[in-house]
């Protein structure tokens, strides 16, 4: 094969799906996916995997609903991802934008309805977008299955540590993998929390992710996000519930992560207040990881400063990329394949 060479650094769910999309679309491409050590400390290894269609931001709604629609029509993707359809609830202080609900109906017909306070189960004090066709996946399992197919169709998978990224406008892009210089026509950094170290000064930051799996005695709610308090959760293993809140811990070292007791207390307090009948006990175990944040947040292809059209990032989901990854990877692959301008 003598086609262009594309390098993707980072074999989490985002990087793996992007490399797979590229290779599926053009088998002549030489696509190399570089894994990184300690990948389980990134978001893919620990993500709760909530997938739903509704998002307040129109772009994120389009990506999330398109991802879910593709999952639901593909028996293969459902099996690879371990998709479980449980429904979901998005809790708001005010009613959802009618135009957002109309767009959601076009992408996922008959799935979503907007409920006033008191109309949705468990959440008497909130406006709620309730979705029938939503649930959760296993991002780790999905990544592993897509990675195996990527290799089956001729993609190159390399283990190693990426360092010393070098790019000049209009020139070949290169990086070191365990000390060996590797060159590409186009490169994408999908390295999650390791991205800021590879691109210092590009306004990418690491952000702590933390949640707990709690024992509960009451009826468990469907997967939910409470936009008022930040609380999110879904049913967990056994008679448990996965619960968490966004952290404000930035610039953390992804190789040296520790639980934040204040986040555990805040999670428990909010869950007791939002779901008083849940019967929450203490956390069974606590999960800590990190991901990459940038503004505006969301998983999408971004050009890097001063690198022309050859070096990009595909990150920025802050732990919530699983619900948009399929569609975001398709959009990113299309832009790379057709050399379309990529908005900053």
From TrEMBL:
Pfam families, per database record: DAO
Keyword Protein transport appears in the UniProt entry: no
Protein's UniProt keywords contain Oxidoreductase: yes
Protein name listed in UniProt: FAD-binding oxidoreductase
GO cellular component: cytoplasm
InterPro entries reported in the protein's UniProt record: FAD-dep_OxRdtase, FAD/NAD-bd_sf
SUPFAM superfamilies in the record: FAD/NAD(P)-binding domain
Sorted UniProt keywords: Oxidoreductase
Database matches in PANTHER family: FAD-DEPENDENT OXIDOREDUCTASE DOMAIN-CONTAINING PROTEIN 1 (PTHR13847:SF287), SARCOSINE DEHYDROGENASE-RELATED (PTHR13847)
Annotated ranges, domain FAD dependent oxidoreductase: 6-335
Taxonomy, superkingdom: Bacteria
Molecular function GO terms recorded: oxidoreductase activity
